[in-house]
Amino acid sequence: MTGYFHLWLIPLAPFAGFLINGILGRRLPKWIVTTVALLTPLAAFSVVLVATAGFFGLGAGNVPAVGPMPFIETCPLAWIDIGALHVDFSFVLDQLSLVMLLVVTGVGFLIHIYSVGYISDEEGYARYFSFLNLFLFFMTVLVLAGNALVMFVGWEGVGLASYLLIGFYFKKTSAADAGKKAFIVNRIGDFGFLIGMFLLLANFGTLTFSAIGQKLIANPGWQGGVLTVIALCLLLGATGKSAQLPLYIWLPDAMEGPTPVSALIHAATMVTAGVYMIARTHVLFDHSPFALSVVATVGAATALFAATIGVVQHDIKRVLAYSTISQLGYMFLGCGVAAYSAAIFHLVTHAFFKALLFLAAGSVIHAMGGEQDLRKLGGLWKKLPLTFAVTTIGVLAIAGIFPFAGFFSKDAILYAAYTQGANGRVLWFVGLVTALLTSFYMFRLWYKTFLGESRSPEVHPHKSPWSMLVPMVILALLSICGGWIGLGENLGRFGAFLAPAVGARATTASGDAHLELYLSIAAVAVALLGWLVADRFYRQRPGRAAQMAAANPGSYELVLNKYYVDEFYGATVVRPLLGISKYLLGWFVDTALLGGGAWLLGGTATFAGALLQRWQSGNLRSYAAWLAAGTAAVLLFVVVPWATVWPASLNLIWKMAGH
Amino acid sequence: MNLLSQEVPISWYLLLSAVLFSLGVVGFLIKRNLITVFMSIELMLNAVNLSFVTFAHQWHAVKGQIFVFFVMMVAAAEAAVGLAIIIAVFRARATLAVDRIDLMKL
Predict the structure, then answer these.
(1) How many CB atoms lie within 10 A of CB A116?
(2) B30 vs A: CB within 8 A
(3) Which of A23, A202, A256, A657 is found 20 to 30 A from A614 (Cα to Cα)?
(4) What is the predicted ipTM?
(5) Closest chain B residue to A617, measured at CA
(6) How far apart are alpha carbons A443 and A446 in whole angstroms?
């Protein structure tokens, strides 16, 4: 790639937007802020489009042709160069990062447009957009990273942007707390990532992904052992960022942020960073069957676990949040059965339909003046027809109904799981049950929000501006068509495109077209079943669900309260930590040890000062007397030879004095 | 010149110098009046001058005598400044008792 094309332009554009709006935003008129905030992601997206066009050879004339993938761009100055440790600041564009970049900058740009309408009358307009641009900057750095350390920079950066945006309404205590929670829980995951990086350095001597891959290819017999440890450490990092068991607890709380933020960061892009990281380091996981099975188990367990919670939530955004956790579980499941292409495929389609669903939910919330309780919504299809239409598409897509996007990607993951041997059947079954639940709770949300009678008739919804509607329409189109890129055997063109970057999967029962068809039919049947159940519960017999809940108060309460996981963590981790902080560190170490030590030192100095202060009488003659006495003493030592044996002479004087 | 060294031993001069110096020190320490204290300082300076001259004569070195001139010059300057300060202090405080001039204390 030559000419005017540079990879660093992609992150740099949003960063410039962040700087301009962050520093000058408050003094600039609103239209300039909007222009800067929209143009910089558009610029990044354009560069990505140019790269894509160049890759497919579409660029005629002025579009530079892309060289062989991966295309590597390294900062001429070494970043860290100490002895054997050598880390460059390098960006890599290959098939995997190209797909991610298209999603991140494309969906990111759409959500920027949406935000203009959504956030328009809020305080902190420029602050919001500068943070959103900052997020895009770090996210593109994360995606483009050529080695683990650059990825870590982006990884921490998106965490920071996420923290800032969750706490955007910082005057609300719950929002500020949610931001802190997200940050702290992510820190636990980052600990795993860091340990993984240290182990990589110790065992490979490099952090560059391609170099690690080459070393592993050179030693095909190297299996398990330290590789398993590294993979599990990286997995811990991924579970933190991608909200998997056991570190998923921050994501539902993160819904305190503005809805477009939930759509961009906590549904479409940032939370998929864990999946991306596993796909990026897939060679390590490929050499450790145990780590892979852990990934698959974590994914399947999270998918089912979060889906059950999503069934009973009342907050429209929390339903979507648990749905996101559940869908991320699918992606981990896909990674865990080494079907990285399928996982990335689901990542892409999920970015479309989940961003769409969040934006639609935002449109509902915006129209209803901040109301997001499902029990108070209803009958909105007449008042918000376009939002209703796009939500319908989104729901059909996530439920996995043919031919919407979610069907293809979910089917690909389920198929990959099924063909993964005996354990695979279990994983497949869990995935299928999750699909049933997903379909059920999404149609539940759909019925409760848009159909039936309005439950708060006094509110008159106002229409959303075009800047909110256009991105939703585009995302709706993508949610319909987005899956078609994966048509065919082994994900068709999409699989073939990604294969050089993530490797083609060797399935145990590949090429069985009948099996794939049966599995697809099963998945669609399950999705329709979920719809049917939701239809019975929420349209035909609206009181049925409440009756069932009343009949099983124990289990209903358990699920409604999210299995008391937050309470469990609070009792086992947070409370002891707070106790240690308050009593051991606060009282004993801080007050007793440090405070006491400081008091002792200060007291000694004060006491010595008080003693010496008497010397400083201000009386001239006393000073003079001391001066004379001092001179006399010096003379005594210098002139009188016996003074060198002072102790003896003192003793003599003592005796002469009669003691 | 030789007459001097022959008739009066050098130790007498030094003894006189020491006595004068001690008188100065004692006066400095025990006198209350600032002007007397000031005069005691002059006495000490001149005692030192005497020993300078004595040694210069003894060793036939002119440096000692030059030092005496320097000391006298500094003493003259010091007398001017010192007396000015004393007058200023007296105007401000209407006293010259050193025990009562103790504002230098923190």
Answers:
(1) 20
(2) yes
(3) A657
(4) 0.77
(5) B105
(6) 5
Q: How many CA atoms lie within 13 A of A548 on its CB side?
A: 10
Round to whole Å and give the CA distance between A29 and A33: 7
Mutation target to probe the B interface, by most B beta carbons within 10 A, among A620, A622, A639 is A620
The encoded tokens of residue A500 equal 């050089």
Confidence of residue B2 (pLDDT cuts 50, 70, 90): low
Contacts of A546 (CB under 8 A, 6+ apart): none
Cα separation values, A283 from A290, A477, A555, A560, A644, Å:
14, 35, 42, 40, 81
From chain B, the residues in CB contact with A624 under 8 A are 28-29
Predicted confidence (pLDDT) per residue in A30-68, tens digit:
888 899 999 999 999 998 988 888 877 665 555 555 556
Give the C-alpha distances (Å, rounded to integers) separating A527 from A91, A344, A363, A374, B23: 41, 22, 26, 22, 116
DSSP A46-72: HHHHHHHHHHTT---SSSPPP-SSSEE
What residues of A are in contact with residue B37 (Cβ under 8 Å)?
620
Q: Integer distance in angstroms from the first to the last C-alpha of chain A?
A: 101
Tell me the β-bridge partners of A93: A71
Residue A115: which residues within 8 A CB-CB, separation 6 or more? A128, A129, A132, A258, A260
Q: Is B99–A621 a contact, with Cβ atoms under 8 angstroms apart?
A: yes
Instruction: Note whether A619 contacts B99, CB cutoff 8 Å.
Output: yes
Q: Are A394 and A357 in contact (CB under 8 A)?
A: yes
Q: Is the pTM of this model over 0.80?
A: no
d(CA A177, CA A200) in angstroms, rounded, equals 35
Q: How far apart are CA A210 and CA A206, in angstroms?
A: 10
Place of tokens 């931001």: A179
Query: Rounded to 5 degrees, what are φ and ψ at A145?
Result: -55, 135
CB contact at 8 A, A162 and A182 = yes
Alpha carbon distances (Å) from A369 to A159, A319, A461: 29, 19, 8
Beta strands per DSSP E along A133-206: none
In the structure encoding, which two tokens stand for residue A169, read together? 């309404």
Digit-coded pLDDT (tens) for A355-372: 999 999 998 888 888 788
Q: Residues A262, A319: contact at Cβ < 8 Å?
A: no
Query: Phi and psi for A244 in degrees, rounded to 5?
Result: -105, 165
DSSP β-ladder status, A90-93 and A71-74: antiparallel
Cα of B86 vs its chain's centroid, Å: 17
Given a contact cutoff of 8 angstroms between Cβ atoms, the answer to whether A47 and A5 are in contact is: yes
